[in-house]
Amino acid sequence: MDSVSVAILDRLEDVVTSLQDNSIKMGQLLAVHQEKLAQQEKIDDVLFLKIDNLHKDLEVKTDEIKKGCERDIMLVKKKIDEMEKKMYIATGAVAVLVFFVTPFIQNTITPLFEVKPSAIIGGPTAPVPDESSRFAVRKSTSFQTAGI
Question: Would you give the DSSP letter of residue 147?
Fold first, then answer.
């Protein structure tokens, strides 16, 4: 039994040594993983910081672009308002010219289109109710003037 117990003790000693080696290797493995996790956290912190900086820069650039666009819109609006003002002034000037020049033109052109009285003296004409009676009235009036 002595040899059996020595064999069991040797075997047990080998198992304990193996467990100790495994424990040391496991500790080393955990230390390596812990180091990798610490490095990854540092990298993540740097990346998040860069993302925050990019976000702030983007907001600043967006505000600058927005202000530039608003400034350009205001310049265009100002130019349109100036053109509109000039159009209203021109329209008013044309209206004033038409108002003052029209009587002059009417006084100049009206005598050209006036109907002058004819030299033929006619008798009084009666109002004509329709076309057929008009011929009869003229006929009778023209016979009276001619002495028939």
Answer: T
User: To 10 degrees, the CA torsion angle through 43, 48, 52, 58?
Assistant: 80
User: Does residue 91 contact residue 114 with C-beta atoms inside 8 Å?
Assistant: no
Which long-range contacts does 5-14 make (Cβ < 8 Å, 24+ apart)?
A: none
Instruction: Identify the DSSP state of 130.
Output: S
Question: Which helix (H) or strand (E) is 19 found in, with range?
Answer: helix 2-113
Could you tell me the CA-to-CA distances from 63 to 37, 54, 71, 73, 129 in Å, in that order?
Answer: 39, 14, 12, 15, 84
Q: What is the pTM for the complete model shown?
A: 0.42
| pLDDT, tens only, 90-140 | 999 998 888 877 777 777 777 777 776 665 665 556 555 555 555 554 545
Q: What angle do CA 125, 131, 134 make, to 5 degrees?
A: 25
